[in-house]
Specification:
The protein is about 35% helix and about 15% strand. The protein is of the alpha+beta class. The strands form five sheets. It has a four-stranded antiparallel sheet with strand order 1-2-4-3. A three-stranded antiparallel sheet has the order 5-8-7. A two-stranded parallel sheet has the order 6-11.
Length: about 375
């Protein structure tokens, strides 16, 4: 069983606080080494076969060096997509919708501008052709206004027919899934998170749209001195994509195709004004942006995935049936060329495959952020 853990191996290395199963000491070493190389703090939580075996945090939660606490919540980016996807699968489990329903069946205004054939499956598999947020809105600050974003999506035609290509919906995915959820439940996304995940699973910190009274628990985003998330964003993303693509990009033709499709990367991830958008501001933390921003403790996000890893159940609480979970895990293959991310993410319905230094487990899924 996991036991209380507070230790620093030698002076100069950060202390960690929490619990650790002796068999998972390597996780503590890796976290400590990571914190020693960076500014700020972090937390990691691991469940193994339904048991919490690692729940550790350390470092500083803000630029003033105040220590990371057990209840500190980290601003979390695309990991929110996994939360949104889980909620939608829960509603499919209750027969409130089906994956092959046209989105417009539940959200009639969506069916304009050539979107009448887009299905819920297309949305979950990033095949709806609605990733081009740069063409939908005039400024990134619009992402704080849910109604504005929904209207913008309603009026926008897809960049390609549904199912023709797979293109990562980096910033629009949460509005698409979130509005479908709102239409079939009559409940806002932030309220669904609390009612369907936080309360049943006993989560201690999971917000997509945090109340003001919880913001004191938020860790501060500490950017590199040369700029924030979007300082030099296109160049940084290009370097990262080239690095991750590795040997697959050695072919000159493949590299040319990546460069020519760089427009899709900008369209998906860099709306106008993104260089001035503050992901760490109180306004942003209070807003519901369920593709790109939330506040989570590590243990809350882990408990949600632990329930999925337990075939939909954790500690006697079932959030999904095994049948629905199998459907959610099924790999979705797009017929055409890739957009935005120029390599195969092994998409499931709202989740992607898991890539590690020692390979990709066949049945593993989740969402990076």
């Amino acid at each position: 069983m996991a036991v209380p853990f507070t230790r620093s191996t030698r002076p100069g290395l950060p202390e960690l606080d929490g619990i650790l199963h002796p068999a998972f000491g390597g996780v503590a070493r890796a976290l400590r080494e990571q914190l020693a190389r960076t500014t700020g703090g972090a937390a990691v939580c691991v469940y193994h076969r339904g048991e919490c075996v690692v729940d550790l945090g350390g470092g500083a939660r803000d630029a003033d060096g105040r220590p990371w606490l057990q209840d500190t919540m980290a601003p979390s980016f695309s990991t929110t997509k996994g939360v949104a996807s889980t909620l939608l699968h829960m509603m499919a489990d209750r027969k409130l919708l089906d994956y092959d329903d046209p989105v417009a069946l539940h959200w009639p205004e969506f069916g304009q501008a050539g979107k009448q054939d887009i299905t819920v499956r297309h949305v979950l598999a990033h095949q709806s052709g609605l990733y081009h947020i740069r063409q939908m809105i005039d400024d990134a600050g619009r992402m704080l206004d849910w109604d504005y974003m929904i209207h913008a999506i309603e009026c926008t035609p897809p960049v390609h027919p549904p199912g023709e290509r797979t293109g990562y919906h980096g910033l629009t995915y949460g509005y698409l899934v979130g509005e479908i959820l709102r239409r079939v439940t009559g409940t806002s996304f932030e309220e669904l998170v609390q009612r369907e995940l936080v309360e049943p699973l006993g989560l201690d910190g999971m917000y997509v749209g945090a109340p003001s009274g919880e913001l004191h628990r938020a860790a501060q985003l500490i950017w590199p001195r040369r700029g924030g998330l979007s300082s030099g964003l296109p160049r940084a993303m290009q370097r990262q994509l080239l690095r991750v693509g590795g040997g697959a990009l050695e072919s000159g033709a493949r590299l040319l195709r990546l460069q020519l499709d760089f427009r899709s990367i900008l369209d998906s991830l860099a709306p106008r004004g993104i260089e001035h958008f503050d992901f760490g501001s109180e306004d942003t933390l209070r807003a519901s942006i369920p593709a790109a921003h939330g506040l989570f403790t590590a243990r809350s996000l882990t408990r949600m995935y632990a329930a999925l890893a337990g075939w939909g159940e954790l500690d006697g609480v079932r959030i999904l049936s095994q049948e629905t979970l199998r459907r959610a895990m099924h790999r979705q293959r797009g017929p055409g060329p890739l957009a935005v991310i120029p390599f195969d993410m092994r998409w499931r319905l709202g989740y992607h495959g898991v890539f590690t230094a020692v390979g990709s487990p066949r049945h593993a899924f989740g969402h990076f952020g």
